[in-house]
Amino acid sequence: MPDTTQSIQNVEQLLHWGERYLLQANIYLGHGTDNAWDESVALVLYGIGSKDHGSQELLQKHLEDGTIKKIMDLFYTRVKKRIPAPYLTGQAWFCGESYYVDERVIIPRSPIAELIETGFSPWLDGIPVLRILDLCCGSGCIGLASAKAFPEARVDLVDICEDALDVAAINIKRHGLGARVTCLHSDLFESLGDASYDLIVSNPPYVDAADLATMPREFEHEPTLALTAGTDGLDLVTRILCRAKEYLSASGLLVVEVGNSEEALIRSYPDMPFTWAEFDRGGHGVFLLEAEQLA
Asked: In the prediction, which pLDDT does 53 show?
């Protein structure tokens, strides 16, 4: 543990202390940050109630002893209990914007963000996108970011977990999208009636039994229902593939993240013409299928 008796008087000194402490603790990073410095920044800025990300004025800001202790306690909790930082701050970032999160939902980290930022080009180029379905929505970040990418579209956020939908509703309000985005309680497509969508995007549970057994302690704080999907991780993905065609428009697009279950999916559906997305910022295991390919 770093020496906590060192003289810490300002934000910059506390940031460096936090980085050293996190590095020595060997925590798992992967819930919104990939390095100890960024994790330290997230916790310190939350502790001082600032959205400023690096001005010299902020770095030299004097901190009272009580504030320093409160923030150090935040770091201690992060390390001792292995709670991911977004659950401590109530904030995660997706497509460059802030979303509320707590332990009722998994923390946003899907590479689908890159596809949203490009408007799912080239697959949806020139195609009017008026209805979007975010299946297994969790916090709602994928559907809400998609609503901003397609400002004419109405979006349904669907989840089987009512607690998750409560969090999604908070984010709908936070982003001012209540006029176009709706929460629906449904076991995948079961309660959607005869709805038709131009884009169905999903980050469903896909962790297989072997991966679950070896995941870092940080994942124990995320809802198991949102992570696991049977022995091979394909329980929900198989159901999505079987019924997605019924809910896609003629020119519609299905986008699903399967992560490490990609190989199992290819083995199970060797003749399915999956297109696997490539990402500049890391990530894998996201396939795209056009409606006609699901026939």
From this structure: 65
